[in-house]
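in:
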């Protein structure tokens, strides 16, 4: 759908892509839709999202700053949108990954550091950043990963 949108820039398709990414990302992605939070019509701003998407297409890591201008979109979900719009070039930075690496919840000031580490590792191992991100994320669900997160959370 993203490739189709790039050739057409259809507003309805853009909105549909946004919703699909939110649903893909998990339960906390629903907050932007809740009536008590103003509902989707109040929280989704097409111009902001479109600008952020175009920045991600150009692989601009500062597109993260643009996504979080949307109500109820934090760093985790912003990076999920970046991931898809950058053709999987900009890695996801969610609570699990931040806990493993920094021992705390994601913060925008850590994204560049996270990206730098993944970039160096990717160059060294000749693998895509999304492969490294996915490997770390999958490791988090192992016994060793859960123990590491517990240790980092106490010291971070």
């Amino acid at each position: 759908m993203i490739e189709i949108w790039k050739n057409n820039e259809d507003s309805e398709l853009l909105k549909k892509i946004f919703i699909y990414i939110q649903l893909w990302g998990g339960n906390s992605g629903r907050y932007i839709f809740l009536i008590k939070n103003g509902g989707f019509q109040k929280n989704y701003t097409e111009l902001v999202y479109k600008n952020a998407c175009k920045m991600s297409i150009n692989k601009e890591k500062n597109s993260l700053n643009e996504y979080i201008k949307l109500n109820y979109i934090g760093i985790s979900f912003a990076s999920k949108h970046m991931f898809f719009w950058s053709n999987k070039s900009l890695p996801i930075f969610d609570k699990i990954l931040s806990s493993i690496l920094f021992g705390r919840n994601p913060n925008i000031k850590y994204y560049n550091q996270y990206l730098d580490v993944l970039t160096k590792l990717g160059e060294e191992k000749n693998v895509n950043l999304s492969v490294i991100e996915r490997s770390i994320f999958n490791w988090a669900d192992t016994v060793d990963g859960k123990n590491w997160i517990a240790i980092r959370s106490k010291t971070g």
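note: The chain has a mean pLDDT of 89.
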